[in-house]
Amino acid sequence: MIVTKPGEASLSHRGVLFLDELPEFDRKVLEVLREPLENGEVHISRARGQVTYPARFQLVAAMNASNEAYSGGQDYYQSAASQKYLRKLSAPFLDRIDLHVEVPPLPTDVLVNEQEQGESSAIVRQRVEAAVARQRQRQGCQNALLNGRDLERICALSDSDKQFMQQALDRLKLSARAYHRVLRVALTLADLEQTQVARKHLMESLSYRKMEKTLASATSGV
């Protein structure tokens, strides 16, 4: 009988796994995360047997494109130094991350004045809880657990929106996996507004993958 202890992925089950300076992790370690990100489980095989641990976690990762990130310059992801740094990450691994968000440097006036902006966490929590309740009432589970067929049925895109998505997939060179992830995020955005999926939700969801083409080109041929 195989005897193993759960690793960080399983210990993060139904929680958050945070990886700082993502490209600094060994590439083989990050590739192992592809299975739990897709299936929510970790399978370990040894000579004495096999064991499966639950590992349905929310992955949150942070990284700097390069030292140029500190210069405040624009489009530093396109630089040669940044491209070399990004090659440490594989396109299939990045394909499983729903939201790619670039965080620009904080303006000095905001940093110095420390003026609080935006909604409070309490208000955001109410909207999230309402969205989750809507999902469970509609399909008996959260959007993250929907398969591709059910996801497409619930989104019920119009013919014009289907054509829009086809053009977006071709332009951004998104995979079938990424397509369903875009739909899932769009559906969640609609649920946060307590409405049906519309073109604006698809556009916002696609905007969160704006680095997709850049990251894919950085990892091409690897």
Rg over CA atoms = 19 Å
From N to C, what is the helix and strand string?
HEHHEEEHHHHHHHHH
Outline type = globular
Count up the helices: 12
Strand arrangement across the biggest beta sheet = 1-4
Through-space gap between termini: 38 Å
Major sheet: 2 strands, parallel
Stretches with pLDDT under 50, minimum 5 residues: 218-222
Helix and strand composition category = mainly alpha
Which percent band covers the strand fraction? Answer: 5-15%
Mean pLDDT level: 85
Helix content estimate: 40-55%
Fold topology:
Elements: H1 8-11, E1 16-19, H2 27-32, H3 34-39, E2 41-46, E3 49-54, E4 58-61, H4 80-86, H5 91-95, H6 108-113, H7 121-139, H8 148-155, H9 159-172, H10 176-192, H11 199-207, H12 212-219
Parallel strand pairs: 1-4
Antiparallel strand pairs: 2-3
Helix pairs in contact: 8-10, 10-11
Q: Characteristics of this structure?
A:
222 residues; 2 domains; two-stranded parallel sheet; disordered C terminus; nucleotide-binding; Mg_chelat-rel_C; ATP-binding protein
Structure description:
The longest helix is centred in the middle third of the chain and has 19 residues, at 121-139. The model is unreliable at 218-222 (pLDDT under 50). This protein has two domains: 8-102, no CATH class; 121-212, no CATH class. 49% of the residues lie in helices and 9% in strands. It starts with 7 loop residues before the first helix and ends with a helix. A hairpin with a 2-residue loop joins strand 2 (41-46) and strand 3. The chain has helices at 8-11, 27-32, 34-39, 80-86, 91-95, 108-113, 121-139, 148-155, 159-172, 176-192, 199-207, 212-219, and strands at 16-19, 41-46, 49-54, 58-61. The chain has a two-stranded parallel sheet with strand order 1-4. The protein has a two-stranded antiparallel ribbon with strand order 2-3. By secondary structure, it is mainly α. Pfam families: Mg_chelatase, Mg_chelatase_C. InterPro entries: CHLI-like, Mg_chelat-rel_C, Mg_chelatse_chII-like_cat_dom, P-loop_NTPase. Residues 118-209 form the Mg chelatase-related protein C-terminal domain. Keywords: ATP-binding, Nucleotide-binding.
